[in-house]
Amino acid sequence: MLKITLTSFIFILPTISLHVLLPLYLYPGDNAEAWEPIFSTISTHTQVQFDVVVNPNSGPGTTGAPTDANIIAGIQKLNSYPNVQTMGYVLTGHGSRAMHDITNDVDTYASWGSDDSNLHIGGIYFDEVSSETTSTMYSFYQSAAEHARSSISGARIAFNPGTIAPTQYFDYCDTMVEFEASLSDYQSQNPVQKIPEQYHEKTGFQIYSTPADTDVSPIVQAAAGEGVGAIFFGVDCCYKVWDAGLLNAMADAVSGAGGAASSEPAANPPPSNATLFSSRTPNFNLRRKWSK
What we know:
Elements: E1 19-24, H1 36-43, E2 50-54, H2 69-78, E3 84-91, H3 99-111, E4 123-127, H4 135-151, E5 156-160, E6 175-182, H5 183-189, E7 203-208, H6 217-225, E8 230-233, E9 242-243, H7 244-257, E10 275-276
């Protein structure tokens, strides 16, 4: 009898339903060195899905595909991880921005992978989403989402009103950021209790002004227990300062909330007080401010 032995190659893919929605608004630095702690967290938490929002200039910029070698290197490396989906930032101005400008931004992101598949953008993150309950706004955001899905195959769509929005908007996106404010505000407001349970899996929270030494595990466990779909903790309001320890603590908590530890612990984890920032290129990842 002929006996055939097969050698198995196992690729570990995300197995946890709670995602990390990571707004990467920091210039990558030389050869994307400023993003290394983020790469380290991603690579050592392979069972966690990271939806990473890239934002060259409040959108894709005006050059078509990226021309900055550092940005190219950073996006290529992000796309090398099987547990990452890159998403392009698109501003909507609470419904006041011209639709053709929005669709042009979407089309620009969609074109990034045409010459280099490693620059592929897998979804769109619509920011400054309206929370109005009008048919005009519903139609506006439905059109924006439909255009993104027709331009990018399998696109993941995120809306960010940053506050509790009408549930109809959930019909047009995969994730809706229903809270974007400080950790202290999150703890006092408990926003998940204001969202109908059937929409929890599409709900995301972006929590900033989180002290670097915060134990985020109880918050993550509670969110996961409510079936929340995405979460993020940052130390500053504009997502341009990163604490490596908080990054890893967040990913550890998400991994633990899924009932599975990260499969490849970091050999040399970065110190908890390691923060990164860049002001070299002030136009990169400009995040617009608004009042809610």
